[in-house]
Amino acid sequence: MSERGTLRARLESLAREVAKFGVVGAFGLVVNIAVSNLLWRYTDIPTVRAGLLATFVAILCNYVGFRHWTYRDRDKSGRTRELTLFLLFSAAGAVIETGVLYVATYGFGWDTPVQSNVFKIVGIGVATLFRFWSYRTWVFKALPVPAEAAPAEAAAGKSAAEGSAAGESGADKGAVLSVPAPVVRVEADPARR
């Protein structure tokens, strides 16, 4: 597979992952905002504490969505480790999210229902970037590359490096790379390349 084809496959995979993460996150956002507003309206819990409680309810909902849909194809061998890291990084995200709400509420005195919702959403947005990076990097780890695919990938890297050193690409040499079927994505339309 050419470098451009490999890059395209990686970008498509990342786009699917971001989309799935976004769907689960959007559901979590709805849960978070709904629980926050219910607590703000019907209880005497202070704004930031109610927002933090709502965040933890949303985190529990999101774990189910991430584990069973977004990252269902990732390594499932260390569930205790995975859940521990998920809760650790989720707590860090909650600190980021609640910190924005805290500064708005107590630092600037912006605590009307509309202002609280706006800063809750801003905090969620900032924390989401951190959570996406940490979940995909540390919590839901990708499965290792199959042993038979590793030598083929190493050979592809070596062939491309040799072609670059000689001033020509692997495609100019007419080299053919054999990769196991599950790793290769075959395109029927050569004009798309």
Question: Could you give a short description of this structure?
Answer:
With 193 residues, this protein is mainly alpha-helical. It is 73% helix and 0% strand.
Kindly describe this structure.
This protein is mainly alpha-helical. It contains 6 helices and no strands. Helix 1 (3-42) packs antiparallel against helix 2 (47-70), helix 2 runs antiparallel to helix 3 (79-107) and helix 3 (79-107) runs antiparallel to helix 4 (113-139).
Notable features of this structure?
single chain, 6 helices
Structural classification: mainly alpha
Q: What proportion of the residues form beta strands (DSSP E)?
A: under 5%
Based on DSSP secondary structure assignment, what is the total number of beta strands?
A: 0
Largest sheet, strands/sense/barrel: none
Poorly predicted segments? 159-187
Helicity range of the residues?
over 70%
Our measurement of the CA-to-CA distance between the termini, rounded to an integer number of angstroms, reads 11 Å
Rg calc: 23 Å
Shape: elongated
Task: Note the run of SSEs as H and E.
Answer: HHHHHH
Helical segment count: 6
The pLDDT mean sits at 80
Oligomeric assembly: single chain
